[in-house]
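Subject: for your reference before the review

Hello V.,

The reviewers asked for a structural picture of the protein, and I figured it would be easier to keep everything in one thread rather than splitting it across files. Below is the amino acid sequence we used in the manuscript, unchanged from the supplementary table.
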Amino acid sequence: MPDEEYAFQMKNIEKKYLSTGVVANKSVDFDGKYGEVHSLVGENGSGKTTLMLVLSGFYSPDKGDIFIEGEKFKFKSPKSAIKKGIGMVHQERHLIPSHTVIENILLGHGRDRDRLNLKEAERKINEICNKYSFDLDLYERLENLSASEKQLVEIIKVLFHDAKIIILDEPASVLTPQEQEKFLESVKGLAEDGACVILISHKLPIVMNVSDRITVLRDGNVVNTVTPEMTSYEELANMMVGKDEMFYVEREKAKKGSEILRVDDLSALNDKGQEAFNVSFTVHENEIFTVVGVSGNGQRELVETVAGLRKPTGGKIMLRDKDITNFSIRDRIEIGVEYLPAEKILRGIIVDFDLSKNFAMNRHRDRDYSKRGIIDWDMIKKSCEESITDFEVKASGIGTMAGHLSGGNIQKLLLARTLTHCKDLLIAEDPTQGLDVRAANFTRERLIDFKEGNKGVLLVTGNLDEALEISDRIAPIYEGEIQEVIPAEEASKEKIGRLITGSSEWVE
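And here is what came back from the structure prediction:
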């Protein structure tokens, strides 16, 4: 029976994707109370996001009921859910890059007497920012913001619409350690102010720190609901995957080969016209060279410049003694450079294309896949089928739309495409961002396997543990400058922590 004690209750929810035949939710019961943080954890593809898309009105359940404060509701759209005080911050941002912060926040907002009171809206937004210590220029364009700042815009947008039930889907995946700490305080503050906060996260330390309750989903089913006091990181991980499993990557010491990439005094401007970085480094065969740092220290611009997405203002990029500084993206691909982007949907795939078409991206000129300018789709489909099997992409077939895959399976699709075709150098930007423990482990293992074929990996990440786990050399970056290049065996979390924060001390 529905209970008014709860902000919401979901009873016996079932949701099946007709396009893939996958049953994402199987008779799920889930609820939340005002004044609490209820975390939802599970592997990629376990049904977490689907369940919350049902609650927020994006999907209609095939079976089951939703109760808001004890009253049964059937949402016809996200707009009807917003009217009932339900707001969702999505893992993949739903923002318009060319619009300003305030314009993005106001999108879809109802008008009073056909006119929007911009001054009153600005006052309310500033009040939210001050309350939760969010530092944003409301008239800056989204395209000029960092990933973490864009995440804050999404959160403010939900708060501006007076949401009382707030769903946060992997909100900390793009935040730096310092930003995460501030963000956790904000999440706790939302609950203390009486909101019902639903947190979807793969970061178990965050879940254990901030949650009042934790529900584990596996294969679309609820495994258990516990409190942090009742469980541990290990138990949560085991509930997620269904068995005891050690999560670590085995690797041997690299046998460094010849030089693949040399970057000499390379520099470029950020989107505000300021110098973003000035660096020099090399990457060798059989090596993962990792640039690690706090977001906003030039690493995004560095990745884009080496990949050909941003024009350098100085310096050289050499690939096996060939100057590729001014090569186009197509030329870089043809000579052996591939890019694995952090923003999987924005830069990695086309959601309305099936797996075979996504797999074929940038391959239409390859001799293996085209003859006299005509694409050989039979060969592409055969190669795609082999690759998605090898990379364990969960889909009903290569005709599945890419947008119907979970985040982890989209990443596996991108890995399949880039690693299958990469001839020399892979540029991997935050490759495990937003992935669960198993999917992250899978990704790291594949990067290690790839580089051991006399190839090189330029890894750019904000994850210190990841850098220490799989790197052969580590280059901490701070304010656009590489502070030191450290062999993996000489690196420590404390040392790297000091270098990426520009401080003399590091506190765990």
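For the response letter, the relevant points are probably these. The chain has three domains: 8-241, 250-336+426-508, 343-421. Confidence is low (pLDDT under 50) at residues 504-508.

Happy to draft the paragraph if you're swamped.

O.
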